[in-house]
Specification:
Elements: H1 11-25, H2 29-36, H3 42-47, H4 57-66, H5 77-89, H6 103-127, H7 130-149
Helix pairs in contact: 1-4, 2-4
Length: about 150
């Protein structure tokens, strides 16, 4: 089989191409689930028209591999030209030592912010009554349970 490069700009493009590939080689959705290590019926939901579920970055790679495709990054001249133009227009708003490239300083800043946050929480708790703390704790517990029931973690 010839190796043809396809330009992909989104996860949905990968799913669309994987769907076409699966149909071309006669691969069932159940087989894709098994090969990719997905839950039963997940590939069918991803490849439905319109999709019932959206693929994330991890699933995208698993899905592509299950239909015999790999993902390669190639240089896009138009995108590179745009990126270089944006890089020239960039103005630094912070001091050089606080830029994202200086991870050590940023980690120190983060640790300091966490420490200040802990102090703020303890001060807040000393100023609230036991009834207010109970109400706050109940509200937080309900929010956690709602997230669990919705399938989030």
């Amino acid at each position: 089989m010839s190796q043809q490069a396809l330009v992909v700009r989104s996860v949905q493009d990968v799913v669309r191409i994987a769907t076409a590939r699966a149909e071309a080689i006669g691969l069932r959705r159940e087989d894709i689930d098994r090969i990719a290590g997905l839950a039963d019926g997940h590939a069918g939901k991803l490849m439905a028209v319109p999709p019932i579920k959206r693929a994330g970055p991890t699933t995208m790679f698993l899905l592509a591999g299950a239909v015999g495709l790999g993902i390669a990054l190639v240089e896009d001249p138009a995108a590179l030209k745009h990126a270089k133009r944006e890089a020239k227009n960039r103005k630094l708003t912070r001091k050089k030592e606080l830029q994202w490239r200086n991870a050590k300083k940023l980690s120190i800043m983060h640790a300091h912010a966490v420490e200040r946050g802990k102090k703020g929480a303890s001060v807040r708790m000393t100023k609230t009554t036991p009834e207010q703390r109970t109400r706050i704790a109940r509200r937080a517990a309900r929010a956690r349970w709602r997230r669990l029931q919705a399938g989030e973690r």
